[in-house]
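Support request, please re-run this one:
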Amino acid sequence: MSNTATDINQTTEQTGVGHLSVQHVGKVYDPGGANVVALDDCSLEIPAGEFIAVVGPSGCGKSTLLNIMAGFDSLTSGSVLLDDEPLATLNGSLQPGPDRVVVFQNGALFPWKTVLQNVVYGLLVQKQMSEQAANEKGMDLLARTGNLDRIAHSYPGQLSSGMQRRVEILRALINNPKILLLDEPFRAMDTVSKTTMHRHLLDIYDQYHKTVFFITHDLDEAIFLADTVVVMTTRPGTIKLRLDVDLPRPRTRETVLSERFLELKQQAVSAVHEEAKKAFERGERELA
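Re-run finished. Output below.
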């Protein structure tokens, strides 16, 4: 095992990485005006190393919850804890940090930097190590995840959208975060590209076993990737259903054809459609 993988895995074992606790979280936008309640009494426990996928109708508060976890948005009530330490509290300041790294829907690579320079950017900004040491660590990580060291000196504009997504995920992973926060990272991809990215993401998860909080509208994607699928209610968002995905790993193409996969999908579809119908009947405008 390389030093990169060893460092990440040892850190996980030593610190109990990534136990996230969402406790009675509420979020109200424009409390003095429109008074839009995005989240209400939302509670969720995410054990260290769990891959959790969150689904629900548009505007149910999925991205709002992720932004609170990431430290990009405040909450109105409740708290969020990471390994029993507060990340977000009612009177606390916003606390983004390298222990939580976000991969967004839209690409965020620097087009003027090479793949390697993009991957090691966070290490250099945080001054964790010398440029030489960061480059060595970056090359090792690229080599271990699909032999991507072969494109280390390419620029994002020379890569496919799927390859760019892979580089973004590695840029997040190299900082050794406790939690990976992924906000519909494969939404704009065609079916074939998305299926390929699922395989690459699962390879990374199986290798490093990070805690993953993954937002999606795609129920097949959620069930195929996750240990747990959480269905949120229409606004105000809270947890409607927590579905344990008891499908064996590693997941394969045959997984989606199994009887158990179809049973789980039916449960998720019923819960999501019920909430989507409520949102449609209320004529709710889509929010985060």
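Residues 109-175 form one domain. The chain is about 40% helix and 20% strand.
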